[in-house]
Amino acid sequence: MSDPQPVAEVRHLWAELESDGPQVGILMGSESDKEVMTAAANELLDRAITFEMKVLSAHRDPRGVAEYASTAAIRGVRVIIAGAGKAAALPGVVAAYTELPVIGVPIRTSDLGGMDSLLSIVQMPSGVPVACMAINGARNAAIFAAKILAQGPVHPSR
Ligand code: RP5
């Protein structure tokens, strides 16, 4: 009987994992964000870009957010769009757990009109960037994600 060949087996599994996952992850902090974030999903559908959509709250389910963000790249996700309102921590927390580009969508709120969400998302500390769209700018987030995907891999000679 021949020895097992773990390296070849692992390489095969990695290839499958990277090709099977959706290209974009659309996250939102609450079910109540779904109506706004559907604009991102519709734009990606129009462009035939594969995506998944999940409700994950940075405050109510921090472990779930950490697990999603830290395993997204290995499943083939290439860009994450994260919509959140009020103390909108979700895009920043996702960015803390992944090297993937994160696009934040501040959700309009009843108390402060979405300025709370906007400032929470845009004021990231140096070294942990999050792209920030306009308030309720979910469609633009999808277009921006499409532009990132269109760049393809970085040329090795650069
Ligand atoms: C945020 O708080 C969510 O992203 C949502 O925009 C806002 C309100 O959430 P719910 O109280 O409606 O669940 O975390």
List keywords for this structure.
single chain, 158 residues, alpha/beta, 5-stranded parallel beta sheet, 5 strands, 42% helix, binds 5-O-phosphono-beta-D-ribofuranose
Question: What is the structure about, briefly put?
Answer:
With 158 residues, the chain is of the alpha/beta class. It is built from six helices and five strands.
Q: Could you describe the 3D structure shown?
A:
This protein is α/β, with parallel strands linked by helices and 158 residues long. Helices cover 42% and strands 15% of the residues. It is built from six helices and five strands. It has helices spanning 6-20, 34-46, 62-71, 90-97, 115-122, 138-150; strands at 24-28, 51-55, 79-84, 102-106, 131-132. It has a five-stranded parallel beta sheet with strand order 2-1-3-4-5, sandwiched between helices. Strand 1 (24-28), helix 2 (34-46) and strand 2 (51-55) form a beta-alpha-beta unit. Helix 2 (34-46) runs parallel beside helix 6 (138-150). It is globular and about 55 Å long. It starts with 5 loop residues before the first helix and ends in an 8-residue tail after the last helix. The model has no long low-confidence stretch (mean pLDDT 91). It binds 5-O-phosphono-beta-D-ribofuranose. 5-O-phosphono-beta-D-ribofuranose (RP5) is lined by residues 29-30, 32-33, 57, 84-86, 107.
Helix/strand-derived category reads alpha/beta
Q: Globular, elongated, flat, extended or rod-shaped: what is the shape?
A: globular
How many strand segments? Answer: 5
- The amount of beta strand, in percent, is 5-15%
Model regions low in confidence, pLDDT < 50 over at least 5 residues: none
Characterize the biggest β-sheet: 5 strands, parallel
Number of helices: 6
What is the mean pLDDT? 91
Distance between the termini: 46 Å
Query: What molecules are bound to this protein?
Result: 5-O-phosphono-beta-D-ribofuranose
Into which percent range does the helicity of residues fall? 40-55%
The gyration radius over C-alpha positions equals 17 Å
In what order do the strands lie side by side in the largest sheet?
2-1-3-4-5
The string of secondary-structure elements, in order, is HEHEHEHEHEH
